[in-house]
Amino acid sequence: MIELNFNKGNGLVPVITQDYTTGEILMLAYMNQEAFDATLASGKATYYSRSRQKLWVKGETSGNVQLVKEIRVDCDNDTVLFKVEQIGGAACHTGHRSCFYKKIENGSIRVIGDPLFDPEEVYSK
Amino acid sequence: MIELNFNKGNGLVPVITQDYTTGEILMLAYMNQEAFDATLASGKATYYSRSRQKLWVKGETSGNVQLVKEIRVDCDNDTVLFKVEQIGGAACHTGHRSCFYKKIENGSIRVIGDPLFDPEEVYSK
Prior knowledge:
The structure is a homodimer of 125-residue chains.
Chain A lengths: L12 E7 L5 E7 L1 H10 L3 E4 L4 E4 L8 E8 L6 E7 L15 E4 L2 E4 L7 H5 L2
Parallel strand pairs in A: 1-6
Antiparallel strand pairs in A: 1-2, 3-4, 5-6, 7-8
């Protein structure tokens, strides 16, 4: 039985989502117990949206779902790591493959890579 | 100028720490503005310890400091990614290389890999 520690995060734990083949970090999101159970049951990464305050099956709008290949838990059970197959190639709502497309260089931000899709096209459907 | 969004996390943002050569995720910790500034100034990963409620230069006790090779920020500026060189090989206070040494398999936890050091020896010095 897996007992995550949701106390430190007011009922939520952060989840790091990593490409299971390349090791690239795609995004960070949050889960409550219900989202964790839904992920285990469905095999699709399911988070808790802090802004919308509800369960969020990643890719439910864009089609870019995440098939969970492996789940890791950290030493003190308060952070989760999903290793996933990112359907559609892009995890970020901006169309970028990874949400971490901004690199700090000499005190400024440099954007790394180009978006793989046009968010206005995908999310206005 | 980099403006991180500390509002959603009560003054803190989560930081994912990844090995800059292998892509392995080593740990997740938290930073406030002061920890971020200290990291930029020193080049050593500096976090904010939620339990001790103070700045925490990673490795200050164990000697396993993290030399920050690259910093990424996510799409909405509320999560940071450090790509680091992990001095001493192990990031976790348990002696494991990564804090994410527990894998979920068929509803149970399986420990992956062996500790690289004995925590009792390192932290009782």
